[in-house]
Amino acid sequence: MSELRRTALCSLSLSLACIVFWFGWGGRPPGSEALSKHYPSFIAILLVALMVTMMLTLRGRLERAAWPLLIVGLLGYFAASLTYVIYFSLIAPENFANLVQRLSIFDLALFIISLPPLGTMSWLLGALSGAFFVLSRYLILSAGHCSFFEQSP
Q1: Are 7 and 115 within 8 A, CB to CB?
Q2: Residue closest to 118 by CA, chosen among 70, 67, 84
Q3: pLDDT tens digits, 25-53
Q4: Which secondary-structure segment (H or E) carries 27?
Q5: Alpha-carbon span 95 to 125, nearest angstrom
Q6: Residue 89 C-alpha from the chain's centroid
């Protein structure tokens, strides 16, 4: 699959996952006041990180198998940790520096690896994106109506 086709399919699957995620969990308020104040920025960074990792990972045999469901779920989990570090380094560097000073390196790593993915449920967004990637690729190719997504020689 060409880069343009993979980008379009990743965008479509991530968009569908965002719609489903919003209807299921979007009405619940965020856990902290600081996060609710800057929630759109955090989500934007998370979606960009997830989109880039999806496009870089889903290549060759992986894009044609059922593995994108599990792989993108894991990518969503780790993208939330990366997003947490990027977001608080850029938006609230004082709070992030204070956190780094108060915790040992092991506690900080455990905190960053566990809390953001579980708190934001980004692993579910990643799994939904992977499921929609597999499903939309199958439906588009089996319908045969869209030559844009057909396999390139």
Answers
A1: no
A2: 84
A3: 655 555 444 445 556 777 778 888 888 88
A4: none
A5: 27
A6: 19
pTM of the model: 0.68
46's CB contacts (< 8 A; 6+ apart) are 79, 80, 83, 120, 122, 125
pLDDT in tens, 82-119: 888 888 888 778 888 888 888 888 888 888 888 777 77
The CB density around residue 43, as the number of other CB atoms within 10 Å, is: 18
Q: How many helices (H) and strands (E) does the chain have?
A: 8, 0
- Tell me, what DSSP letter sits at residue 135? H
Helix locations, 26-104, DSSP H: 33-37, 39-57, 61-64, 68-90, 93-102
Within 13 Å of residue 74, how many CA atoms lie on the same side as its CB? 6
Closest CA to 147 of 1, 3, 10: 1
**How far apart, in whole angstroms, are the C-alpha atoms of residue 147 and residue 139?**
13
Residue with tokens 């499903």: 135
